[in-house]
Design a protein that fits this description.
Elements lengths: L1 E4 L14 H11 L7 E2 L7 H15 L3 E5 L2 H5 L4 H17 L3 E5 L9 H18 L2 E3 L25 H19 L9
Parallel strand pairs: 1-2, 1-3, 3-4, 4-5
């Protein structure tokens, strides 16, 4: 399983073992799911940066599942939504071509970006999930995005206390994919 994201997935501002990706790996072990997690997230990554390195990453890791958590930095920089959507579409297409099931993780922008931009930004993720029939988590920070005490002083990056909530959010969208991609037991001989 490959987590392909930005600082929200790279445990920014905390030890990596406290980040949601490490906690997801622990949860998979507890559930006795036959997956190991590789975190290929880079702090500051944009959808264009992710697209630039996806082919090499897919070839190296050969994931059965790819959790795609990119786009937030595009939004924070006010980059065109259409360009982000095109980049993410290419990452999804290449991942699916490499036989990886994709979980697309959506993001929302702060209200100061304006209603039109925010709606278009949020809708881009929903449209991609529908078009490519991916698993979909509409908002990574669901359930605590408005709770200042669960964010680092920059008010962008969640604290280690918020990481278990992120895992719960991801797990809800990931669990059905795990069932679909689970290795089938060998057929019994008659």
């Amino acid at each position: 399983m490959l987590v392909y994201g930005d600082s929200l997935s790279s445990a920014y501002g905390m030890p990596s073992q406290l980040g949601w990706v490490a906690l997801l790996d622990e949860r998979l072990k507890q559930e006795q799911a036959d997956y190991s997690v590789v975190n290929a997230s880079i702090s500051g990554e944009t959808s264009a940066g992710g697209l630039a390195r996806i082919d090499k990453t897919l070839a190296r890791e050969k994931p059965a599942i790819l959790i795609l958590e990119l786009g937030g930095n595009d939004g924070l920089r006010g980059l065109p939504v259409a360009a982000m959507k095109k980049n993410l579409a290419s990452v999804i297409e290449r991942s699916q071509k490499a036989k990886a099931r994709v979980l697309l993780v959506g993001m929302r922008m702060p209200p100061n970006y304006g209603e039109a931009y925010n709606k278009a930004f949020e809708q881009a993720f929903a449209d991609l999930a529908k078009e490519y029939k991916t698993a979909y988590l509409p908002f990574l920070l669901e359930g605590f995005g408005e709770k200042a005490e669960l964010f680092q002083p920059d008010r962008i990056h969640p604290t280690d206390s918020a990481q278990p909530v992120i895992v719960k959010n991801v797990w809800r969208a990931l669990a059905p994919l795990l069932k679909e991609t689970a290795p089938k037991p060998p057929a019994k001989k008659k």
